[in-house]
């Protein structure tokens, strides 16, 4: 894919560029309508999950096609075997809640691959990673993936993801960053901030070019599919609202489930909509039968909440942030008695609106209560020990703006 001519709409360059830069029309989907953010991707609004589904599927379709093209060049003795394997290939997803670490396959400098050799296959081909044609700022290779893994392992991804499934009452609360729940988009934002090398993964303009991007969003889409099976009546949003600026949509455009998901076309040259991509009939049937059991098994009582948490109250930090009053990207961290209990990632997009949400602070509250207030202590008794810190990408700490509210 990366070797294709960048003028080809299906090249890696143009496919990755759909998300943000270079801000060009893709696949004759219509002239520019936005005036602020000019990527195609919506952030911080109900279209976030629906829009990314056809994007991941576009990538998957091209991945399978390239794999099939390669398999067709293999020796006849093994060709059918590799063609069948190529056609069964699907976009890989990064299950960051199962293992708080960057995928091992994205780390090695050299990858050994099977290549055609004579009448068979030889396992001696090597793929150089990173490309010798590229130039990197000194020091990045030494810090990655160690800094990313450290960030990810210091975050309770499992518990917060389970909370999103358990406590969300509707699609908007499950999916977004403008409700008081632990939204899937918020957890997705953590991944962009924690796993970045050089912070480009934080930037919507460029994040689509990072190989981790599609792995992250394939997993996010997988989790949305679980939600759809578990709560079919709340599979997607049903309300209308005024959307943010994007390449194909002006600021303040009325958005409904029938609004086009530019620039993705479905059948009969019709633009995909939230309704068209929300239909998961025909997908893996085992998901429908086991979605609830799977979430409970991997994220519930057997795994993601401690025994103490299961028999006592759960504690969350709830926040409201006016995006116009906070430099973006940045993190807003909550400290309890001097110990960081968690944070939220404020992404560059959208630039306006109130960002809401919450994250688990159960163990930190329990430990602080036990240490300072005794068995009969209340949350109010440790309120004076709570502090907030806003930090830029450069690690500069910002003055707290009055628009921030945490409880």
UniProtKB/TrEMBL annotation:
Keyword terms: Metal-binding
Entries under InterPro entries matching the protein: Di-copper_centre_dom_sf (IPR008922), Tyrosinase/Hemocyanin (IPR050316), Tyrosinase_Cu-bd (IPR002227)
Pfam families in the record: Tyrosinase
Segments forming domain Tyrosinase copper-binding: 43-60, 210-221
PROSITE patterns: TYROSINASE_1, TYROSINASE_2
Transmembrane regions listed in the UniProt entry: none
UniProt GO molecular function: metal ion binding; oxidoreductase activity
Protein name: Tyrosinase
């Amino acid at each position: 894919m990366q070797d294709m001519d960048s003028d080809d709409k299906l090249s890696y360059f143009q496919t990755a560029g759909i998300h943000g830069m270079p801000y060009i029309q893709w696949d004759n989907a219509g002239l520019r309508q936005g005036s602020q953010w000019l990527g195609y991707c919506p952030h911080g609004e109900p279209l976030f999950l629906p829009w990314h589904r056809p994007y991941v599927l576009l990538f998957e379709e091209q991945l399978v096609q390239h794999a099939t093209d390669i398999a067709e060049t293999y020796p006849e003795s093994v060709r059918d075997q590799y063609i069948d394997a190529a056609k069964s290939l699907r976009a890989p997803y990064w299950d960051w809640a199962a293992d708080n670490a960057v995928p091992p396959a994205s780390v090695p400098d050299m990858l050994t691959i099977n290549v055609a050799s004579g009448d068979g296959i030889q396992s001696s081909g090597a793929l150089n990673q990173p490309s010798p044609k590229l130039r990197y700022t000194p020091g990045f290779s030494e810090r990655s993936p160690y800094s990313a893994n450290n960030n990810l392992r210091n975050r309770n991804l499992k518990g917060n993801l389970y909370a999103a499934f358990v406590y969300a009452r509707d699609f908007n609360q499950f999916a977004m960053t403008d409700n008081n729940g632990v939204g899937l988009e918020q957890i997705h934002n953590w991944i962009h901030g924690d796993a970045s090398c050089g912070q480009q993964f934080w930037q919507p303009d460029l994040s689509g070019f990072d190989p981790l991007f599609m792995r992250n969003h394939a997993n996010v889409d997988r989790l949305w599919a679980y939600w759809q099976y578990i709560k079919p009546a709340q599979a997607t949003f049903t309300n209308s609202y005024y959307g943010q600026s994007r390449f194909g949509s002006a600021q303040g455009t009325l958005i409904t489930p029938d609004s086009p998901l530019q620039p993705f076309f479905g059948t009969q040259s019709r633009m995909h909509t939230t309704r068209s991509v929300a239909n998961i009939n025909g997908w893996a049937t085992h998901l429908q039968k086991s979605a609830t059991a799977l979430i409970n098994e991997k994220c519930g009582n057997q795994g993601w909440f401690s025994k103490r948490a299961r028999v006592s109250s759960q504690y969350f930090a709830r926040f409201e942030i006016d995006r116009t009053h906070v430099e973006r990207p940045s993190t807003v961290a909550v400290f309890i008695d001097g110990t960081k209990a968690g944070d939220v990632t404020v992404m560059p997009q959208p630039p306006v609106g109130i960002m809401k949400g919450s994250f688990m602070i159960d163990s930190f509250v329990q430990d602080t209560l036990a240490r300072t207030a005794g068995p009969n202590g209340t949350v109010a008794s440790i309120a004076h020990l709570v502090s907030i810190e806003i930090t830029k990408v450069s690690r500069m700490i910002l003055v707290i703006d009055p628009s921030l509210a945490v409880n």
